[in-house]
Inverse folding.
């Protein structure tokens, strides 16, 4: 940490301060320094750029851009800010993409949503937002959403026109005598989900892949600013339906930090328990999807069978199976009736009795190994460069897990170990999912035993301890929080105004965004058959891809 | 006249194939559901037995959409032709003791050739669909047919070599436990090649929905889709009955000979196919090609040599 501070001394900074245990927060005075600072940081080991989050301060007439640099090895992170002028002509800064490949899409996103112009970016096209927002920047505070929504017919027409234009120009550049073609892999493809890959291929061989995302863009980051701090969880949990608990936890952590509230141990353990249940239900689907994409639906069906029992527990606790809204700032939403643990025990028993056959038939499946053993390989170095996280990073042998690196809730009281694989292939990512599924079950068992023990000794009161009061109005401030989500690192950057009733700005950094960026890199030169396999192995969820 | 009408429309013709399709479709669904830990169709009829009947009649009455820019004749003729060609082999199969519609000395040849034409018809459906995915599916079918049919034919030839005849009735009559044992490797190879020919996992490469959106099926709907499904199930019957006739002694039973045993043997092969389907992911085109030419074809040739050897050792005197 000290060495990073020493590096920052060479640049003129407004302030350099410690933030949490693993972060340094600094503000650059001049945007001209960014590129040279980036080079220095890279040599220091901070090779991953987690995300870029502009905040639009309308009153101060500033566009503040936040960069989050991470070193996955030594767990030192830098939160760097730099001010830009707000007006669209001069709101520009040097692109970091040449230094940090992971910045590519994050810069495109900042450009599309806030109109920050990144100079010397290799491919600064608009991303995520639909065509009716072309040329306007919807997350700027002076963007008039109401006026925009009034012109619905015109907006739809714009989208249709853009679609037709692209359909016409799709293959214009291709040599008519060659066998090259552009395939639309999605958004209504059996294996794609709401994403479209523009696959430029020559027969079976893939030449390049250009992902077109944004089909489930709900502008969640904007939506939360229209809700109060508690109501915002329904937007936050819709990051992805498969693991909604942990995304709410990330948001709640940020709000609690600004409010200065410490939650009860019971709530902490409940968050761990619920979070791991959500992770289990997500990993079950991930494992199933991996095989689904190779044309085998049995595992998905078997997993659904077991997953239902875990959803039963979520239902008995929160009343909902998928969108639970069970975690909110100040703790967890509901008290716990200890009878609910019977449901959980049923799920754990079901898991223990059925996981053996899954392992025998699918994890050791020779045909799967034949297909996935050498496909989609990522080295540890690439993980750093492209800022990958979660199972994708750990499958390549990089030891990164926010639950251990930056423990939140009750994770510091559990001694977790990094689970990693070495080769970083699609098969290793599948193995990671399976290993982590078992790890999560162990955590659930521990958390359940812990809660039961403390409740029995009356140190915890399950019906009263679940919540501490968080004020409705928060002070001015900002915070970042990170959690290990089912798919990887979720980073939330929350900004509040004085006496705020709702978030001023919430940036959600979601792992699938970086992982989807890898598709072209991994698929170039491979065949059509590998597209679903690699796509499935990256464990992408379109919900958190588009937000 | 009435006999040939009966043969072509009732047994082993159209009605029989329809019944087989409806029945097997339902059986596949129920069996697959059990392997998937699901229930399968359960609302209509006992155990959901009417479900496939309703589904197929629904498909028949639905609008059949012919996309813009395709040759409508090629597009609509091919499914019909596919059904007819797939139904023809059953005329050469000895379904019961003394019952065979066309008793030919070249029955085996007819069977193998009629089965072998089918993929080319499906290739033409993909070719005529004017759709990139269908076209890719068509090309894949052709690639797979060429490589898998070689071993399929060679495996199917082994009984003919053993018994010295291509007459299916004669092959069945001459078969015994001894010949079954000798032909067992041939049967295993036939079964693997059959998976490739019928586009079943792990060789369901031509209609891989996750890769190329069901390949040649993509543009088909309504009646034409029904026809293609019917053709697929008729093809199942042709290939299963071929296996039963060539290797498993057709209608020959344990205590008595009957069609019942023929049917059970076919069902047994179907169950094997389904179980594999529930536990094996798809392989890639390149892996299939390698598997076919590197392992299957040499093995089927070796099998022929083995059959020659066995014949000279044990079957010469008979």
């Amino acid at each position: 940490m000290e060495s990073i501070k020493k590096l920052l001394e060479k640049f003129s900074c407004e302030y350099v301060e410690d933030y949490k245990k693993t972060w340094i927060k600094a503000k650059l005075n001049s945007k001209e320094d960014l590129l040279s600072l980036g080079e220095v940081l890279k040599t220091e080991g901070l090779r991953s750029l987690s995300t870029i989050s502009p905040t639009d301060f309308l009153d101060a007439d500033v566009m503040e851009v936040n960069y989050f640099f991470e070193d996955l090895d030594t767990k030192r992170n830098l939160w760097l800010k730099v001010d830009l002028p707000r007006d669209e002509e001069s709101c520009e800064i040097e692109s970091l993409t040449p230094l940090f490949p992971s910045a590519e899409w994050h810069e495109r996103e900042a450009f599309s949503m806030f109109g920050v112009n990144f100079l010397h970016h290799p491919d600064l096209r608009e991303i995520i937002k639909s065509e009716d927002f072309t040329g306007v920047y919807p997350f700027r505070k002076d963007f008039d959403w109401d006026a925009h929504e009034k012109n619905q017919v015109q907006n739809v027409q714009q989208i249709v026109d853009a679609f037709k234009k692209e359909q016409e120009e799709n293959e214009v550049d291709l040599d008519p005598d060659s066998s090259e073609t552009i395939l639309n892999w999605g958004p209504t493809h059996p294996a794609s989900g709401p994403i479209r890959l523009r696959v430029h291929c020559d027969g079976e061989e893939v030449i390049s892949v250009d992902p077109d995302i944004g089909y489930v863009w709900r502008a969640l980051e904007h939506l939360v600013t229209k809700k109060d701090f508690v109501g915002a969880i329904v937007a936050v949990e819709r990051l992805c339906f498969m693991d909604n608990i942990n995304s709410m936890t990330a948001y709640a952590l940020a709000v609690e930090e600004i409010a200065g509230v410490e939650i009860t141990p019971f709530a902490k353990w409940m968050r761990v328990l619920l979070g791991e249940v959500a992770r289990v239900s997500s990993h079950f689907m991930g494992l199933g999807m991996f095989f689904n994409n190779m044309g085998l639906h049995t595992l998905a069906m078997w997993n659904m069978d077991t997953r239902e029992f875990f959803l039963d527990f979520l239902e008995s606790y929160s009343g909902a199976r998928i969108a639970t809204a069970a975690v909110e700032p100040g703790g967890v939403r509901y008290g716990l009736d200890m009878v609910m643990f019977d449901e959980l025990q049923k799920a754990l028993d079901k898991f223990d009795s059925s996981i053996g056959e899954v392992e025998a038939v699918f994890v050791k499946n020779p045909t799967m190994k034949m297909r996935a053993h050498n496909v989609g390989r990522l080295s540890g170095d690439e993980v750093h460069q492209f800022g990958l996280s979660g199972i994708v990073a750990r499958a390549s042998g990089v030891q990164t897990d926010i639950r251990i690196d930056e423990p939140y809730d009750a994770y510091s009281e559990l001694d977790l170990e990094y689970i990693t694989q070495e080769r970083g292939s699609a098969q290793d990512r599948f193995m990671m999912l399976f290993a982590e599924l078992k790890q999560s079950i162990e955590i659930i068992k521990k958390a359940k035993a812990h809660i039961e023990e403390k409740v029995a000794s009356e140190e915890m009161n399950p019906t009263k301890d679940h919540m501490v009061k968080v004020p409705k109005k928060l002070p001015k401030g900002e915070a970042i929080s990170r959690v290990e989500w089912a798919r990887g690192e979720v980073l939330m950057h929350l900004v509040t105004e004085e006496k705020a009733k709702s978030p001023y700005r919430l940036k959600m950094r979601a792992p699938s965004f970086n992982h989807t960026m890898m598709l072209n890199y991994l698929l170039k030169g491979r065949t059509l058959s590998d597209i679903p396999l690699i796509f499935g192995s990256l464990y992408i969820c379109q919900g958190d891809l588009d937000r | 006249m009435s006999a040939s009408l009966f043969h072509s429309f009732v047994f082993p013709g159209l009605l029989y194939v329809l019944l087989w399709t409806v029945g097997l479709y339902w059986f596949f669904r129920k069996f697959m559901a059990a392997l998937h830990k699901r229930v399968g169709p359960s609302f209509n009829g006992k155990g959901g037995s009417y479900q496939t009947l309703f589904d197929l009649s629904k498909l028949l009455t639905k609008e059949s959409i012919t996309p813009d820019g395709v040759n409508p004749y090629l597009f609509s003729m091919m499914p019909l032709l596919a059904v007819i060609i797939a139904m023809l082999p059953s005329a050469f199969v000895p379904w019961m003791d003394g019952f065979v519609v066309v008793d030919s000395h070249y029955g085996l040849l007819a069977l193998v050739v009629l089965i072998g034409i089918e993929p080319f018809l499906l290739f033409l459906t993909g070719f005529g669909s004017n759709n990139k995915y269908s076209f890719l599916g068509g090309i894949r079918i052709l690639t797979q047919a060429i490589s898998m049919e070689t071993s399929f034919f060679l495996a199917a030839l082994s009984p003919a070599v053993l018994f010295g005849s291509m007459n299916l009735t004669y092959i069945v009559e001459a078969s015994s436990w001894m010949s079954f044992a000798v032909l067992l490797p041939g049967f295993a190879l036939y079964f693997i090649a059959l998976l490739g020919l019928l586009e079943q996992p792990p060789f369901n490469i031509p209609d891989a929905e996750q890769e190329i959106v069901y390949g040649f099926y993509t543009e088909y709907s309504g009646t034409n889709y029904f026809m293609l499904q019917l053709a697929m199930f008729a093809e199942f019957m042709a290939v299963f009955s071929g296996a039963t006739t060539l290797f498993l002694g057709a209608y020959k039973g344990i205590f008595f000979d009957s069609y019942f045993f023929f049917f059970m043997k076919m069902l047994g092969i179907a169950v094997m196919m389904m179980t594999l389907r529930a536990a094996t992911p798809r392989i890639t085109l390149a892996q299939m090609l390698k598997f076919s030419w590197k392992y299957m074809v040499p093995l089927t040739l070796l099998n022929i040599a083995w059959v020659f050897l066995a014949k000279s050792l044990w079957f010469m005197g008979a």
The two ends of chain A are 33 Å apart (CA to CA).
